[in-house]
Structures are given as structure tokens and as C-alpha cells.
Amino acid sequence: MPTHPLPPTPIAANGPIDTSPISSTPAAGTDLDPIWASVVPETRARSNDIHLPISLAFAERLLAAHPEADAELVRVTILLHDTGWGRVDESRIISEGFAEGWRKSDIRFQHEQQGCEVAREVLPPLGYDEEFVEAVCAIIDGHDTRAEAHSLEDALVRDADRLWRFDYAGIALASSWFGLDPAAYSDRLRREIVPELLSEAAMAMADADLDRSEALLKTAVLR
User: Fold this and answer.
1) How far from 89 is each of 36, 51, 161, CA to CA, in Å?
2) Which pTM was predicted?
3) Which 8-state DSSP code applies to residue 84?
């Protein structure tokens, strides 16, 4: 299925940008519940049962800022993008997937490939056609290991995947994956992850969330 070409980055918003705490706007509706129900085992790996719902909520905020994007494609893809972690050797997720050079670790490529397999298994029985499924897989395949986004929808999925880290729940979980305390991890977010964001909306959300999280977690003192 066609996707929207990637605009120049940072991608300017065409709609409102909501920078309030993400807990105030959980993902809306129940239309994706059949997909959630199909991937419950995959959500239990690497805290996906926290990461994926928060990322979906961020994706919906980004879609409000970009009404021109294919909302269904973005929402389904962000729900499924990391389900592949549930199909790889769990003992290698932290030791390899979050070690030095993690972006190009073999386990990262495996989780993307397995995420595509999950999508191809669960989506057709729920009525999604082959063209849509392959569009989902085109974004999942490379969402961590590919340097560039290929479309607006790809960019919004990538931004939503990163934005959860700036919330205090994301910091609490992900900091331990990298063997960092919350203050050091917050510094890393500002130094390495903010520059990776592709949309102005995501940048604004990340800045607001990180300011709140650092104040809440007292990172100025606890370092």
C-alpha cells in the first residue's frame, strides 16, 4: 500500500502538539484489542506490556499532529514493532541487545525479522490484507537497525518507539537495561536520542517529558 513520502526533517506538524503527561491520554478505542489479544505472550518479553501501550499512546499524539499520515498503518505497526523480542533467546536480549554496539547486534536484526513473522501470523486472520501486512513489515524490518526512515509513517513509528523512554516509566525500565542510573540515562536521552527524533512534535514531547521526569526523579541531586 502507498505511504506518504518522508518530508524534510525535522518534520513540521500540521496539527496540535500535546506535551502533557502521556498518562493523561492513553490510546483511544478498542479497535486494536483483537491484535493485542493475539500477541499477549509476545508482550511479556522485555517489558513490552509497558513499552508497547505507552508507545501506541505517543503514536496517537503524533498522528494528531500529522493528520495526513495513514493512522491505521502507524497504530498497527507500533503495536507490533517489538513483538519479535518474544520470539528470540531472552537471555541475549540484555547481554547483546543493549550492550556496546547494540544497534547492530545480531539479536536486534532477529527481533525485527521475528516481529515481521508475528505480523504475518496474526494480521491476516483478523481481516488485514496482504498489502497492508507487508507495509507493516516494511516498517518493522529495520526500525532499530536501519539508519533512515522511508516514509512519514515510518518516521512516526520510529519517534513513537523512542518517546516512551522520556516518560518516568520508560526511564525506570530502560535505564537498568543499559546499566545506568536514571540521571545518567536521562543525560544519554538528551545527548543521543533527542537528535534521532524526526518530527518537531516528537521533539517537543520529549523535551517536556524529560523535564518532568528529571524533576520527579531528582536527577539533579541523585547522580
Assistant:
1) 22, 19, 22
2) 0.93
3) G
DSSP state of 12: P
CA angle 153, 161, 222 (to 5 degrees): 150
Is the alpha carbon torsion for 22, 23, 29, 32 positive or negative?
positive
From CA 11, how far away is CA 76, in angstroms rounded? 21
Cβ atoms of 124 and 132 within 8 Å: the answer is no
Q: What mean pLDDT is reported for the chain?
A: 93
57 pLDDT more than 70: yes
Which of 92, 134, 135 shows the shortest CA–CA distance to 110?
A: 92
Q: Any idea which residue has 521475528 for its cell?
A: 114
Q: How many alpha carbons lie under 13 Å from residue 197 in its C-beta half-sphere?
A: 23
Judged against a pLDDT cut of 90, whether residue 92 lies above it is answered with: no
- CB distance 27 to 57 below 8 Å: yes
pLDDT in tens, 211-223: 999 999 999 999 9
